[in-house]
Design a protein that fits this description.
This protein is of the alpha/beta class. The protein has two domains: 131 residues, Serine Threonine Protein Phosphatase 5, Tetratricopeptide repeat; 143 residues, Roll (Ubiquitin-like (UB roll)), CATH 3.10.20.90. It is 49% helix and 14% strand. The chain has 14 helices and ten strands. Strands 3, 4, 5, 6, 7, 9 and 10 form a seven-stranded mixed β-sheet that branches. It has a three-stranded mixed β-sheet with strand order 2-1-8. Helix 5 runs antiparallel to helix 6. The longest helix has 44 residues.
């Protein structure tokens, strides 16, 4: 019986002992069962990923480990090599940003080992290259090559950077320098061939672009000459309230023809030597308009009006816009005067009127109904030059 009582006492004592860990009185520093994974990851030995910057106050254990790795008693060469190895580890993990930081720290040691500094610059160039920072990578490759002119990896990296930056000639030069060291280096051979191909393509495209620009310039000059020969005057908006006019060829500017309409049409010279213009008709009584993208200069207005009003538009509720009842005008904005044009005249004849100026490359005309109440009111207070 005594033995049984002793066993029960032992079991009760063990239960009480275990209850101390299950209850609120846990051991100091013990993990929380609800958050143990996050707390576990804070232990330096079990960290999945080290922080980029270490604060000794926030993480003294990790700072202590780092001090063991980077011993202050080490020479600059030893410290630079340690940072190089650390950067290489990050590079293998494809963590190029941290690799760059490590290589940079190694360079900050300013050690006297030329080869080590060359490797740090070359490796940092590789990390920058993978991040798409081609200019920074090229700068490192140039520096590495200055330290060791025959360092093949630096030359390869520089050639690749020049290629990505579309410096094809420079890439070829770097490749040829590297091929003097190793004529069979595969990466240099591939880069040299690609740079040469892209350079030829770029030169060909440049020649085509220049030829096209020359052709377009020639066409514009021929167009301008055709307008000058017809004594057509251009007007270009020089400010919100003023217009500048060009009547003499020496003063005429291609700017007067460069503004395309909202539909995208503009004046052009046909192969037979005639001009075709975009023409805008305005109907002020109804706030409507018609746009003809290709109005040949020898065509008469009446011919277009007949086609345009073959079917009366829906906005003409009074059915009065018939070709034989329509009158055509243009407005001289400079003098604030209105001139009537015979609908049986051609576009060229209208453009040759003494006070007609083509604005923004698009001739514009007003269309009104003859003797309509609106027309009479529209002309009140305005000087109108009517046909005899």
């Amino acid at each position: 019986m005594a033995g049984a009582a002793s066993d029960e006492e032992d079991e009760g004592g063990m239960d009480a002992f275990m209850d101390r860990f299950r209850g609120p009185e846990r051991c100091e520093g013990a993990f929380n069962q609800d958050n143990w994974e996050k707390e576990f990851d804070q232990v330096p030995m079990f960290m999945k990923k080290a922080p980029s910057e270490i604060d000794p106050k926030q993480n003294p254990d990790l700072a202590c480990l780092q001090s063991l790795i980077f011993d202050e008693d080490e020479t600059p060469e030893e410290q630079a090599k340690t940072y190089k190895n650390e950067g290489n580890d990050y590079f293998k993990e494809k963590d190029y940003k941290k690799a760059i930081l490590s290589y940079t720290e190694g360079l900050k040691k300013k050690c006297s080992d030329v080869e080590l500094n060359t490797v740090l610059h070359t490796n940092r160039a590789a990390a920058q290259f993978h991040l798409g920072n081609y200019r920074s990578a090229l700068n490192d490759a140039i520096t590495a090559r200055k330290l060791m002119p025959n360092h093949l990896k630096a030359i390869i990296r520089g050639a690749l950077c020049h290629l990505e930056l579309r410096h094809f000639s420079e890439s070829i030069v770097w490749c040829e320098a590297g091929m003097k060291i190793d004529p069979k280096e595969k990466k240099l051979l591939e880069t040299r061939a690609k740079a040469d191909r892209l350079k030829r393509t770029e030169e060909r495209d440049f020649r085509k672009t220049k030829l096209q620009e020359k052709r377009e310039q020639s066409q514009k000059e021929a167009l301008l000459q055709a307008i000058k020969d017809r004594n057509i005057k251009l007007s270009v908006a020089s400010s919100e309230d003023e217009t500048e006019t060009f009547s003499g060829f020496a003063e005429m500017s291609l700017d007067g023809l460069s503004s395309e309409s909202t539909i995208g049409a503009k004046v052009h010279l046909e192969e037979d030597g005639s001009l075709t213009w975009p023409v805008l008709f305005l109907y002020p009584e109804h706030g409507q308009s018609d746009f003809i993208s290709a109005f040949r200069e020898e065509s008469r207005f009446i011919d277009h009006l007949i086609v345009m009003f073959e079917e009366l538009p829906p906005w003409d509720s009074e059915r009065k816009y018939t070709p034989n009842k329509l009158e055509l005008y243009y407005e001289d904005e400079e003098r604030r005067e209105i001139y009537q044009i015979d609908t049986k005249t051609t576009l060229l004849q209208a453009l040759q009127h003494q006070r007609y100026f083509v604005k923004a490359g698009t001739p514009t005309f007003l269309v009104l109904v003859k003797q309509s109440p609106f027309s009479k009111n529209y002309f009140l207070g305005k000087k109108v030059h009517r046909l005899n």
